[in-house]
Write a structure and sequence with these properties.
alpha+beta, 10 helices
Length: 276
């Protein structure tokens, strides 16, 4: 929902060339001059015609960006509500995004259009915050490569299944210690003592896992930037042995043998050797 009413004023196509090109690319009838994106949207959808989902999503993001960052709205209230309803019916991923996720997506789009809406520091901070929350808004579907350096990178996400397995030995040890201890000291039934002491068992399991077996462990899953195969990386120490990969680790892809470097802070895996 918009925080305030927008009215019907619209930006001219000369001011919004991106919106005009967007709608024109969808085979919009251009016999009459289209003076605004709102008029273009209404003209195209008149008669039951439908815009492609990708075009609707782009128009939705542009309308939000115009509302918060430009002088005048891109769509009228009626068109905006109709567009948002269409995206809800088509299960668009942007409809379920939070305000911060939409802000990040719009900032990325505006940066590519040479119209930044925030500083580099603000962008990086927002990206780190969303990445820490494992937000899909900051996860690229495929590896990204830079022509200037020849280096490629891909996004990493926590592997919840493998991280849970890391805590399994500690959980078993904690359960055994707690159940045996209460049985010999108080004579409690083991099953009853496990149910009663589940919060304590949880804390003991974390203590054993994070302070004895592993130190600040994290397993992430990523796509190899060189061959797109799925790989796993581990951050943290083992049995108190400092292996210098608490925040950064190097890994060799088992498929293409490419040398990779992963960062826990940025959750990015990148190649070390540039592509030829």
């Amino acid at each position: 929902m918009r925080p305030r009413a927008l009215g019907t004023a619209a930006r001219r196509s000369a001011v919004l060339p991106a919106a005009a090109r967007l709608l024109a690319s969808s085979e919009l009838d251009t016999e009459a001059e289209i003076k605004s994106a709102s008029e273009a949207f209404s003209t195209f959808t008149r008669g039951g015609r439908e815009l492609p989902l990708q075009t609707k999503e782009k128009l939705y993001l542009d309308s939000i960006a115009a509302f918060y960052n430009d002088d005048e709205p891109l769509l009228s209230d009626e068109d905006y509500a109709r567009l948002k309803l269409d995206l809800e019916f088509e299960a668009s991923k942007y409809i379920t995004m939070s305000a911060e996720e939409l802000k990040f997506v719009i900032a990325s789009t505006r940066f590519r259009e040479a119209k930044p809406i925030m500083s580099d520091d603000e962008y990086d901070e927002l990206r780190r915050k969303l990445k820490k929350a494992n937000s899909p808004a900051v996860i690229h579907d495929a590896p990204q490569c830079k022509v200037e350096t020849g280096l490629c990178k891909s996004d990493a996400t926590p592997d919840q299944g493998k991280n849970a397995i890391l805590y399994l030995p500690g959980a078993l040890a904690a359960t055994l210690l707690w159940a045996e201890g209460l049985f010999w000291v108080k004579g409690f039934d083991p099953l009853f003592s496990i149910v009663l002491g589940s919060p304590v068992i949880y804390l003991i399991a974390r203590l054993i896992t994070e302070k004895i077996l592993f130190q600040n462990p994290l397993v992430v899953s990523a796509t190899c930037p060189n061959c797109s195969s799925v790989i796993n990386l581990y951050f943290g120490d083992v049995l108190g042995v400092d292996n210098e990969n608490m925040m950064q680790t190097e890994h060799e892809c088992p498929v293409c043998k490419a040398k990779l470097r992963g960062s826990r802070e940025t959750m990015i895996v990148e190649t070390i050797v540039p592509k030829a």
